[in-house]
Write a structure and sequence with these properties.
Chains A, B, C, D: Keywords: Hydrolase, NAD, One-carbon metabolism. The structure is a homotetramer. Helix content of chain A is 45%, strand content 14%. By secondary structure, chain A is an alpha/beta fold.
């Protein structure tokens, strides 16, 4: 795919797979809106006052139908938007086409190469000479990373005249990042500094990105404010838990059509994502075995009747392996060699390094048979036994299915609001009726009648949000 | 699609969508074999003795990957095979291509018209001048129906010279059946009689077909022996129950991406299929309401914590409606008009007449918006509210997903064996170890050490099987 | 306890533990009536016509609160009743007291010796010189057994003058049976013949008793008609399944207070009782392992995510063992010796011979520590490790708790009616609303609008019932 | 029961129901120890160093078998202990007897009057002239309350000479508290000041007590340090959740023998306790309806397939009502009047004021029928319809059953340790094997190999614990 930006008749930039899918995308966006009461009510409540009027927003987040509704919520509130995906397989091409045609600058397609991926990211961040976006909606932190690495390189260049050297790293993906920055430097040596200057802040959607941000904050490297959206309850305890409970079996079924009942499923990690995955496998009739490092999570698994063992204990008897840890090196090629024929290996945790894809790809004599896109059978030369790897080790729910369903993403995406309000916006759709405290009860338990109902340590991100609200006042 | 038979280089007839998908089909067939230990062990155990040597078998059964493994099991045992699907949407085109290229005469593609459907059925039954098949593998009874109607018409023709008149019926599908028979009559007025003469018997896979057979048997209209495969435990209590538990959510997800958690799902009917569907919806986090006519099934639903109401009670508050009754006129257009916007309506029971598709299609002013194949939004003119109908009211798991998974179909398809043996063949794959009765225990409970373990009334079909075994001896 | 019959002021015979508990029993009977709509509606519907007027009924069935409601239903329909329990631990003394005081002749208390048990059985059968009961309600077949053995002994005595010799058998319980018959012979050498003559038939409640009856029928030894109540759907699929799902954890909790979550529970047998037990343990958070001889049941367990292994595989790692097989010699003393300290061993299947109690009791050096009645810790001399045996190996739900709850027993006990009617009588209590077939639908599926909805092979016992209805006409 | 302190032969004070139950209590304590690996390993690890040597500990916490193991852990670590229960129905008399005989001063029995209850509390706090305990283990905060009220009264007395006037309050329980303080004042006007002086701090076990403490802390009224044990994960997410999941059905079954399957259960509140209760009812086959004030919890309930309505919506159709809110006035007498006959009303939340017991008791013409202790049927005069109230509105799992099982209480009670260590101590018992981070993984996710694995805001109580550890160093 030639990396050339295209333009709509109105002059908006884009690069998508197939613009003819825009009508199909529009139909599915309309279906999704019915399932996303949180975002829709944002439009209704805040649309008239245009709080994002004039704001430039860059998103690096799976370019799905659900994200399309988010993007159009942002534009309905007055923002201009540029978007890329945060995963090479997660774009739904019809969603990208509809948004590119109707609402925002989109650079995303299903099945990007890493080269293409970072080109898209850079395109989404580039708002022209006046600097970058006012806000970034990041998922996994790649947009944030690019700016930080860009600023670092510009500083070195300013001091020493040196440009980044891609060959200075073994990591092939990081080589690409450095190339892009190097190219940028040669056009405008203050490009990323200008972005940093303009940027009010980033909101980060997911555990992995949040961890990166905390690490940068600790070392003083963080260049701009960041909102931890991930840890709001209606995100981490909903999207991670209920979203994965839904989308793990969805991905497995679409990729392999395998019967889950009767199988042994190993879930590596029993955090929120792992809990959702384990629940899905258990209720589908699998026998679930959990691996954990944290004794509390391990004890929770046991209380649900799940067995807690190490991967080594079970590697040769299980049928399905799914990583959910947010850590790397969970399933190594030596594990994979010991698995049963046609064992399924997949990752729903974070990056593809939860699974040792590099070890697998470079294993001497290994043979890759692509059953269909995102479903590969890898055959080891000695045993002639094969394993089935989904989405090349990347997020299988997005690579092999369509990610989380609209309703739960509406909870996640509405989280610029207060947490409890997000939940409240979604109750009506499900026919629920809340009970109201009496004044007397309210006094008795020291909880305001209108909430918040949770103690403060449940709502860590709110202070940050207040800060950003102030920023908004300053900026827009 | 022009209805012309094509031929492979070896001269075998076929008609499929796209022969270039044969390689893809072959890869998925190989995956499925690993999941179908029952069929594979039939090949191992009986392949050498070629018990079906020389037998002609016609199948009218969803032309999926799993069926492909069945077909190749039959050919491995010595049979010649001709095949069509028993549902216009259920063919997997890559499966059909692989079988057409490698193993048997296939006439099937996804998205047949009714005209095409019956043409395929007739092709699969037509083995040339020497009569029809020795055995039929039927699912729903359409192949059986065609022969019975053909014989009936030939008898009338022989007596009166009258050919069938398609305009004598209002039912558009039956008009097609009559046309085909009429055309056949003009070529060979004994065509269906010859089929009847040659035929040893039919094995019927599903509840609906079995009901038809019992009705014919009662009125004396049944022309040849029939094996009720459906009521073997490893079929009805596995395929219907665990298969649908797997494939209902699969179909819903692929067709609509809707979040099931939090929704209200109405399951019409609580037989084996309904039990599987209700379990799937409940464990996915839906609130399930059951409709039933049978008080025993109703009480079973209640014991599982499900609410039992009438469709009228809940039609305006539920999100998902699924029919599983094996009866007709379950969800009528007047029900659909009262549903919530974007309520999902689907059928996993038997024919599309569980849902009043005709009433919907002919409703004045109704507008059909096809989101994607097998997913339509129907908008009523007065309310502007739409409902989403899957697979045009036909079996949604086959129309919108890929039907039951291989493992459970292996149980169903291996049922020319004794029931308990079928189960036994599948235990090893799941790592189970059976306990063995001691002699003393065996005497105590009057159950042979090697089984059968179930009382006789659990195994109604075996006598028929014995009959057919004798037939085999006679024929092959 | 001296075995002397007592009499109420009105002259009715009884022998119970403590008549002062009658008021408490009456209160619980009144509570139970609200939960037993089937029995209550029998009284309402049939009370006025007094169909059992003048009938003598003997019951040998757990003398619980639920049975008390059954007894008073029988008396409300006109019968005279004498009752004993069918298990030495299953009597609820307050229920026995209330019935003895108010309604029927009761001979039962919790914690009978075997000697006492058979004395009670004989008392319940003895209606005086005119012969025995018209009908027997049997559970496990002990009343039926006593008559058969009595008749056999009387025949031998008539021919040879020989009386039964208790020392002719090693089985201590059967020695008691022979003694009782011997004593009876000396009073009236035609006592059991007279019983046989008068008896219209027996209705048998449970799997074990039904098996005995079928065995007797096959050998021609069965002396009178028998109704298989057990195999009506609203009995075996309700009482066995849902009843045990309720009462297994109830018994475990009352006996041991042990936390079920996190434990490994082995369920021996996966029939209806085993399915209920496994479901209870799984949903309580245990990891469940099933042992089975029948491959179909084994495959069902696997489809629910349960592991299927042999007892030997898991004996040293599990925490809870429960037998549900209806067979003997399931858990032997050699198994028990290998168990973890404080492993719990119990039986909910049939007789105490599912567990090798004799092997345990006679194991050299074993020490029994009674924690409380029906909860014993048995310590092996070599390991100093102990296991906890519930209810001395007898039915733990009746021994350690109060048996099945009223609602499910109402289904079981109402089964002199047709099966579907039994279910229908219980729906209102749970707020259910049945759907009604239209005439057109009824024709389409060939099922009468008013039922029966199940095919004939679902209703094996009905013919027998018709027979008995005729008998009733003759007798009463 | 005359309120006279008794003494053991060794001179230790006690007041229990029946000392002859001490042997039975000892047997059950020994069983419980096997289930409480956390406490047992505390003895093993810390017993030799006697860290509590010389410390006086007063406990006000349900005097159950599990608490007995806690008490003996404290004494094994060197402490002297005085104990009372924190609930009038929660004492297990055999546990109290065993502890009184063997280990500590106990003042507790099942079925105390409120007068007796506060007498016991005062006895447990009274260590003689030298002041009170060094540490309090409180559950619900009654011991803490008594000291605070005592100090307040002593201050007023010191300033004004006024003693507390019981008639100054309408609350009958608080009248008793004031009486006791008044009596104390007349003996030693500095009694509670001395207690306050000596006291190092209180550890509080439960949500209600913790709320009271935070309220006191906010107003500056808190007189001594307090450890929030409740909010450690291995307490609130285990005891509240898994404990109640176990003990709600246990209590229901023992109190009423009612079949849960098929019933409609209303759970008021969906916090940790409510989640456990709802899960228990759902898995037992009930249909569960939740009432909530907090939209986040409401949305969680919906995601599990539960209906969220107000109590008013469902009051007349449900069968079981259970309060879990930690708030008051949840089920009022006007609700109870509208309930179905024999609806069950119970509380597992905190105090009996979740249910309007006062409104019920004083309702004109209401009739109380005690079925058995802790199970009352209340009949309203107009409708003649009755409801069944468990444990007089107090914690039904302790009143009607034996409270949480040992294993989960071991988690709760071991929480003077760090949270993750508590979990780790319990894994071995359940056969789990933890995975260990590699150095490389540890760096990647910035989590130490040995933990803690949770972020800081998961462990709020640890700082307090550090504080108390220092105090210990000072004191002992």
């Amino acid at each position: 795919m030639a990396l050339l930006v295209e333009k709509t008749s109105s002059g908006r930039e884009y690069k998508v797979k197939d613009m003819s899918q825009a009508d199909f995308g529009r139909l599915e966006i309309e279906l999704a809106e019915v399932e996303m009461p949180g975002l829709v009510s944002c439009c209704t409540e805040f649309g008239p006052s245009q709080p994002l009027k004039g704001a430039r927003i860059t998103g690096s987040l799976h370019m799905t139908i659900q994200t399309a509704v988010l993007i159009e919520t942002l534009t309905a509130l007055g923002a201009e938007v540029r978007w890329c995906s945060c995963n090479i397989f997660s774009t739904q091409d019809h969603a990208a086409a509809a948004i590119a045609r109707d609402s925002a600058a989109v650079f995303a397609w299903k099945g990007e190469t890493l080269q293409e991926y970072w080109w898209c990211t850079e395109r989404a961040l580039d708002w022209g000479p006046g600097g970058g976006p006012d806000l970034i909606v990041d998922d996994g932190g790649d947009a944030t990373l690019l700016i930080h690495e860009g600023v670092k390189a510009e500083e070195i260049f300013a001091k020493t005249g040196q440009v980044p050297d891609p060959s200075s790293t073994d990591n092939p993906e990081f080589q690409i990042v450095l190339s892009i920055i190097k190219d940028g430097l040669q056009v405008d040596p203050k490009k990323y500094h200008k972005m940093k200057e303009r940027l009010v802040g980033v909101s980060e959607e997911t555990t992995t990105g949040v961890k990166r941000l905390y690490q940068m904050q600790e070392t003083g490297a963080l260049l701009f404010p960041a909102i931890n959206v991930n840890d709001s309850v209606t995100k981490s305890k909903f999207d991670n838990l209920y979203g994965c409970r839904h989308s793990l079996p969805d991905g497995l079924m679409r990729a392999t059509d395998v019967m889950i009942a009767g199988k042994v499923a190993v879930i590596c990690g029993y955090g929120d994502v792992g809990k959702g995955c384990a629940a899905a496998m258990k209720t589908a009739g699998a026998r679930v075995i959990v691996t954990e490092i944290d004794p509390i999570c391990a004890l929770q698994a046991l209380m649900e009747g799940l067995q807690v063992l190490t991967l080594e204990d079970v590697v040769s008897e299980a049928d399905i392996f799914c990583t959910t840890t947010g850590n790397k090196d969970i399933i190594m090629v030596d594990h994979m060699r010991k698995m049963k024929n046609n064992a399924i290996v997949c990752n729903i945790g974070h990056f593809d390094n939860e699974i040792d894809m590099q070890g697998l790809e470079t294993f001497p004599g290994v043979k890759r048979i692509t059953i269909k896109p995102q479903t590969d059978r890898w055959v080891f030369p000695d045993t002639k036994s094969g394993i089935i790897v989904l989405a090349e080790g990347r997020l299988m729910n997005l690579g092999c299915a369509t990610g989380h369903p609209s309703f739960v993403m509406s909870c996640s995406f509405t989280n610029q609001h207060l947490d409890e309000k997000v939940a409240a916006l979604h109750l009506g759709k499900l026919g629920a009726r809340l009970t109201k405290l009496t004044k007397d009860q309210s006094d008795y338990v020291s909880i305001p009648i209108e909430g918040p109902y949770k103690p403060g340590h449940y709502r860590p991100f709110e202070l940050v949000w207040v800060l950003v609200e102030e920023c908004e006042i300053l900026v827009f």
